[in-house]
Design goal:
heterodimer, A: alpha/beta, Rossmann fold, 11 strands, disordered C terminus, B: alpha/beta, FAD/NAD(P)-binding domain, five-stranded parallel beta sheet, disordered N terminus
Chain lengths: 553, 593
């Protein structure tokens, strides 16, 4: 790396300035010939409140070493409250930066009046020095994808069709009948996407919305009489689309994908173990590795979401293991499993993450890796396994794992209190249809149900998806699907809906957080993680202070 | 793949690049030639030229020729601040047919040439900023202006001199005016003054209620004008709507009134500083009075003769001390700003006292005498001739000793400490924004400045404070009567101009909803401070969809940031446009490293 920490290192600083105070203050500094370091490059925006965390992350991914947002004085925003919201947003982003090891000091806000030219110069000066002291961010160079010609793409698509068995498609349309998106969006049909590809129509691949609208929930895979791997087909098509310059405009403005790409391309000192408390037993080397996933990241990214505390999942898992006498390895060096990048056509970063994680686990000496997140589990169990023949360790999902602990007597069924609420279980697609784990969660539910367990109408392989996959599209159909699922839980008579997938939890909570198209009483169901619920019934975790919405007590 | 078809059609068009030397202001500090050289050959660039001054006539002609000769569609300019001369440059191209939304300008003068001494560093930065502008220009989307209809009526808030003057000027052009005043009379503070500068008598506004002036023509002018609806003891409680059509709610003694207006003039005025905030000035002593209270004594004297007496015991005062800058130019207990009018009025009052009581000793304690008005010097000269004594130095405190008041000060000219016995101490209190003006500024989303007065969008140029909203008089900052009236006339003229047109084009830098992405969660509606977004039922989608009222929208982007699916964006500040600019600025670094 040519960049070096210290006096020779010239940091790249992006300064977002609002039109009303930040930008004019910089102009005035210039008019008054006040010098400040040329490292600072000014981007004018209307209001500091329009600076999206996703855009900030994008700047860091493209070589920024620091970002400063400069807006009007507090309580004096040209747009009433833009700066107040920006401060909250940047504070949350700082948390994410610290978890990633990017260092929150690389983010700064400054609230100054249009006339305060000296303050502008002083604050950017100070910031440049601060970032200079922090040094560069060693980032692996992005692999430049060779652009594909139409003919090459045609060949590739042919290969995808072959690999996924799409040639066998007899156009029966069963996939479209069961597709949850097609049920709300009459213009969307899985069958026609395959058909177009088979006819060699690939000119629009870069702008085709349909291949990104699919949520890869695999309803179609399950129902297809000819076993076409529809989701695999979509994944392949996405990779091709990316090679033609298509960039999925993701929900949350791409913050999540940026986070994952930064993990793939840096080796920063992360801070991802804040959730480990003193009375919990964890270790660096051992038989069992607990793979946490991105739970701490999501808590920071979704800071504004009420009642979201995904760290509890990790804490619950470790406490349950501890109770059974297991001391799991947890690692600060763990990285994202790569699921979302792989499903958005970014194979190269996915492989970087995979290599890192596999090596990390091998080094820990673990023979068994336990997952709470269904996506991490699927990714290791299927995708890592596909690419690396022998991982040298076994993968097990917490549902199977806890069931085994009970079966082998390490945990006692009697230790579980009975649930005092009526509950149902939502099969997440990555755990159910993708991995075939349907029975263990139900067996566990039986242990503590106290007769309060209820099944929804569409369950097991027919379960409706939470509506979003890999943070790509999240539109009206998605929302409708989410609301539908919650109504189904309510209709079944449940007070709470349990699930393993942290993303399902986020998506369902998000769906009901603001406006909903139905009466609130129809979706009045508590949304809770299964692992956390178990820990609570084992008296290892506290019940939430406020009873979840819809609890009958 | 996420852009509309329209975006895709207009993408990948080449950009014409112009670098401005600003007659040496830029070209002496930034090596424009080397930037141009590097840019040439980029397939995305149609042409690169350097001109010594794009905003000059020659520069404008040059651009016009370029436009017609080269088939230009998108332009990136690296020059001065786009807020100032930038308009001249972009307009000269617009006149030829360039879509104004396909123009991008970066500031390499203030941000490079003038702030970085090292020429190679300034050049390097200018090059990156220019590349950023080109990248952004490539992503821009052509748009049409919004045409905003303007209702032919005005709300004037405040019935002081400013409000009355504005109301009269607007009404005389045939527009309906609703004049809202919270007290029970028109005229404001000026109405209570005994005299005004520079005539040192009635005359400038002719509306004193003193006996010498029986006509009070202005107040009657306003009351008699059939285009003006005067609402006394009334307060504006709510204003909604947007540019050209705002809904106003007023509480009046006859109940709540609602009406719609096209323009608004804010003339809420100022109040005087409360001297109790500076305890060492002993305002609690009855003989320590403010200049406003002295005005009342003078008016009473005029009515009853021989009434200029010491408030505590009615004795004729022998020594009077004026203390200047009470609450002004005082960062700790008052305000930093100078109130501009106090020197003038204190001299006027001192001269009036000398006229009534020629034997009285009158001192004015000042830091600097500030009266940047025509006639002030003569006024001051006259006062000295009449025996008013000017002492340069700030009064440290007013002391009570055995029933007597003493003013402790220093004469910084002679270096002597003074301890002057005083019968009356007059505090020349400064101006602060009127009570409740913060409520009005919140309602209208007008920003306030460090001094809490309402803030001009351009401090160098009287202009709108919000679209169709003007602030005049002391609501904008301390000023004298004449200047308040000037303000009123300027604001009225702007409002009239707007209403006469009946409609006006406005930049479409507002929120836009991609309905395919919208999921009807309502977060944008919640985030919008202006009520510009409404969720509407969409039977086809079975969820609600956000719809934007483009006229109410201010284009701040609060909605775009909270949208979890990025369905709502601000035209020409779209994520991909901003990102392209940043990436281009940073990518360069990569190539170098």
């Amino acid at each position: 790396m040519a960049e070096e920490k210290g006096a020779d290192f010239e940091p790249n600083i992006i300064a977002f300035t609002c039109t009303w105070c930040g930008y004019p203050s910089a102009n005035l500094a210039g008019v008054n010939k006040i010098e400040y370091p040329p490292n600072v490059k000014i981007i004018r925006v209307m209001c500091s409140g329009s600076v999206e965390p996703g855009v900030i992350m994008d700047a860091f991914e493209h070589g920024a070493h620091g970002v400063i947002v400069i807006g009007c004085l507090m309580d004096n925003c040209h747009y009433v409250s833009g700066n107040v919201k920006t401060q909250e947003r940047i504070d949350a982003l700082k948390e994410l930066f610290d978890i990633l090891g990017l260092d929150s000091k690389r983010l700064r806000t400054e609230w100054i009046n249009a006339s305060e030219r000296t303050k502008f110069a002083e604050s950017v000066n100070e910031f440049v020095e601060e970032v200079r002291a922090l040094g560069p961010i060693p980032m692996k160079k992005k692999a430049k994808l060779k652009p594909r010609t139409q003919d090459e793409t045609k060949e590739e698509v042919k290969q995808i069709i072959e690999d996924t068995g799409a040639f066998d498609c007899v156009e029966c349309g069963k996939c479209t009948t069961v597709c949850p998106i097609a049920s709300f969006d009459p213009d969307f049909a899985p069958r026609t996407i395959v058909l177009r590809a088979m006819e060699g129509i690939v000119e629009d691949i870069a702008t085709d919305r349909d291949i990104w609208t699919c949520i890869a929930c695999e309803q179609c895979n399950v129902m297809c009489p000819y076993k076409v791997d529809y989701s695999g087909f979509i994944r392949g098509m996405r990779e091709e689309a990316v090679r033609h310059g298509s960039a999925p405009l993701c929900s949350q403005g791409g913050v999540i994908h940026s986070t994952q790409r930064i993990m793939a391309n840096t080796d920063l000192k992360q801070q991802r173990l804040d959730w480990v408390k003193e009375d919990m037993e964890v270790t660096d080397k051992g038989e069992v590795f607990y793979f946490v996933g991105c739970l701490p990241h999501y808590d920071a990214i979704f800071k504004d979401m009420e009642e979201l505390k995904l760290r509890d999942i990790a804490e619950s898992a470790v406490r349950i293991m501890n109770k059974a006498g297991v001391v799991p390895v947890v690692s600060n060096e763990e990285k994202c499993c790569g699921h979302d990048l792989m499903w958005t056509g970014n194979e190269s970063d996915f492989e970087k993450l995979m290599d890192h994680n596999v090596e990390l686990i091998k080094k820990s000496g673990a023979k068994k890796v336990v997952f709470t997140c269904p996506e991490c589990y699927r990714t290791f169990n299927m995708d890592y396994q596909d690419l690396i023949d022998d991982l040298g360790f076994e993968m097990v999902h917490i549902a199977d794992y806890v069931k085994d602990l009970i079966d082998s007597g390490k945990l006692k069924a009697e230790d579980f209190a009975s649930a005092q609420y009526k509950f149902t279980y939502h099969d997440s697609c990555r755990l159910g249809r993708h991995s075939g784990i349907y029975d263990s969660p139900r067996a566990l539910a039986e242990v503590f149900s106290g007769g309060n367990y209820l099944e929804m109408e569409r369950t097991r392989d027919k379960a409706v998806c939470c509506g979003v996959s890999a943070w790509t599209n999240c539109n009206a159909q998605t929302k409708r699907m989410q609301i539908d699922r919650l109504m189904e839980a309510k209709k079944a008579g449940a007070d709470r809906m349990l699930m393993f997938c942290p993303k399902c939890q986020i998506h369902f909570k998000c769906a009901v957080q603001n406006e909903i198209p139905v009466d609130r009483s129809e979706v009045d169901v508590g949304i809770e993680d299964f692992t956390v619920a178990m820990a609570r019934l084992l008296a290892l975790m506290e019940e939430p202070k406020e009873e979840p919405i819809g609890d009958s007590e | 793949m996420e852009e509309s078809r329209h975006d895709i059609d207009t993408k990948k068009k080449q950009v014409a690049v112009y670098l401005c030397g600003c007659k040496g202001a830029i070209s002496d500090h930034v090596d424009l030639e080397s930037i141009a050289k590097e840019l040439k050959g980029d397939p995305d660039i149609l042409t690169v030229s350097i001109h010594e001054a794009l905003c000059s006539r020659e520069g404008q002609d040059f651009l016009k020729e370029e436009y017609s000769a080269k088939g230009i569609e998108r332009v990136a300019v690296a020059a001065c601040s786009p807020n100032i001369q930038g308009l001249i440059v972009s307009r000269s191209l617009e006149e030829q047919g360039l879509n104004r939304y396909l123009f991008e300008q970066v500031n390499i003068r203030e941000q490079c040439a003038w702030s970085h001494a090292d020429k190679s560093e300034a050049t390097e930065k200018a090059k990156r900023l220019t590349k950023g502008a080109i990248a952004r220009a490539k992503e821009l989307v052509p748009l049409e202006d919004i045409v905003v209809p303007i209702l032919p009526s005005t709300l004037v808030i405040g019935g002081g001199v400013t409000g009355m003057q504005a109301a009269l000027d607007i009404a005389s052009q045939g527009f309906k005016v609703h004049l809202v005043e919270r007290s029970d009379e028109l005229g404001g503070r000026a109405y209570k003054l005994s005299m005004t500068f520079p005539t040192h008598n009635c005359g400038i506004c002719c509306m004193q209620y003193c006996k010498e002036c029986v006509f009070t023509p202005k107040i009657e002018d306003v009351r008699q004008n059939e285009n003006i609806e005067v609402m006394l003891e009334s307060e504006v409680v709510d204003i909604t709507g947007g540019f050209g059509n705002r809904q106003v709610k007023v509480t009046t003694p006859d109940g709540e009134k609602e009406f719609d207006v096209g323009t608004i003039i804010v003339a809420t005025g100022s109040k005087t500083f409360n001297p109790s905030r500076i305890p060492e000035l002993r305002y609690e002593n009855p003989d320590v009075i403010t200049a406003v209270e002295l005005e009342q004594l003078i008016v009473e004297h005029r009515e009853k003769k021989g009434w200029l007496k010491r408030p505590s015991d009615g004795k004729v005062p022998k020594t009077i001390n004026f203390i200047q800058c009470v609450g002004s130019r005082d960062k700790v207990k008052g305000n930093l700003h100078c109130s501009l009018v106090c020197c003038t009025y204190a001299i006027g009052q001192a001269r009036e006292i000398k006229k009534i009581l020629p034997d009285a000793e009158v001192y004015i304690h000042y830091i600097d005498l500030r009266g940047p008005y025509r006639g002030f010097e003569e006024f001051y000269d006259q006062a000295k001739e009449e025996g008013v004594q000017f002492v340069r130095g700030r009064v440290s405190e007013v002391v009570e000793d055995r029933g007597k008041l003493f003013v402790r000060a220093v004469d910084t000219d002679s270096g002597t400490l003074l301890n002057i016995p005083s019968d009356i101490v007059v505090l020349a209190v400064g101006q602060e924004p009127a009570d409740g003006s913060d409520k009005i500024s919140k309602m209208l989303h007008i920003q306030t400045d460090i001094d809490q007065f309402m803030k001009d969008i351009n401090p160098m140029f009287p202009s709108e404070f919000r679209r169709g909203v003007y602030v005049a008089g002391t609501a904008q900052g301390p000023k004298g009567i004449r200047y308040s009236i000037e303000d009123a006339k300027a604001a009225a003229a702007s409002a009239v101009e707007l209403m006469k047109k009946g409609e006006t084009p406005f930049p479409r830098i507002v929120a836009y909803v991609d309905e395919e992405r919208c999921r009807g969660c309502g977060r944008c509606e919640e985030a919008c401070e202006y009520g510009a977004i409404r969720l509407e039922e969409d039977p086809e989608k079975m969820v609600k969809i956000s719809r934007v009222d483009e006229i109410v929208c201010e284009g701040c982007g609060a909605c775009a940031t909270v949208c979890c699916n990025k369905a709502i964006t601000i035209n020409n500040f779209k994520r991909e446009q901003v990102e392209a600019q940043i990436r281009a600025i940073l990518e360069e670094v990569d190539a170098d490293g």
